[in-house]
């Protein structure tokens, strides 16, 4: 029955099952309830009949809503939303790749897919996903960052086998950016250890990119016949020439370019190429002994299962290995893993005579323990040169 509200001197609507407060308040604002009088019950009944008819029409109509990924001809599928979390310098490539994928998926599956994208430092992105950023797909700068997400229980073990090429999506190498005219004549890793030369690199304890830099220095000796003692001596000399250790690659670039410090900056080749494409021609050299900077991709199992997006997320990962997607990565400086596309862009990359990998150094588990854990080799180098 309709009750009288003594505070407002107006009739109150009954709380009808399945009619929310918001609906009740909407009608209350728009109707003169006094004018309905005893007919209110009939109005409510008619209203609910109308709702039931609407539901019936939607259920029996020509269009139906199916689960994500349904390919029933003529069916209207539920839209899907994918969250992609990646590191900063991949943005330019994904801005071109994502529209290609969504158009292809719409044509083949009749499903609209939208992407939420997040870009930042690889280590920071890894922590954000662990702390609750619900990524469906993560494309990070190094496998170690992806392994941390796995260790947090969000990615199932064996993810490396779930995508082509052991889940390595793109590659790069380390480059040495110099001052205009290269006044210090820096051409090889050994030049960075000379007296009077200053080098900028980020801190390997806080930067994934800087770990690649460190391993490139170490491997320049260890992968050309030198033992650990010689590699330690050389790497220590280079870090003695490092005046500051910025937290990440972006800060390192600011120190070198904006603050004008040092004679050389260790950077990714793809970043240097991208800068050139954007009109900033940087003098640089690529040492012919170098490390393969391998960038992995993975589906975040816990999140795709929660969101119901596994099929489309896995399809997106597979699409990233196609020639059309690999070309977009190559256009912004990455070395493609697709051999056909790699041949198309051969002239864009310097030749590397001796290319080694993290696996040659023992794999990320061994590398982390040996070099970057607390009290490991990097900390010992810092203590030795008085910068700890």
TrEMBL record:
Gene3D superfamilies listed in its UniProt record: Periplasmic binding protein-like II
Compartmental location: Periplasm
InterPro entries xrefs: Sulphate/thiosulphate_BS, Thiosulph/SO4-bd
UniProt keywords, alphabetically: Periplasm, Signal, Transport
Primary location group: periplasm
Transmembrane segments: none
Cross-referenced SUPFAM superfamilies: Periplasmic binding protein-like II
Pfam families xrefs: SBP_bac_11
Entry superkingdom: Bacteria
Family membership: Belongs to the prokaryotic sulfate-binding protein family.
NCBIfam families per the UniProt record, alphabetical: 3a0106s03
Protein name, per record: Sulfate ABC transporter substrate-binding protein
Lineage: Bacteria, Bacillati, Cyanobacteriota, Cyanophyceae, Oscillatoriophycideae
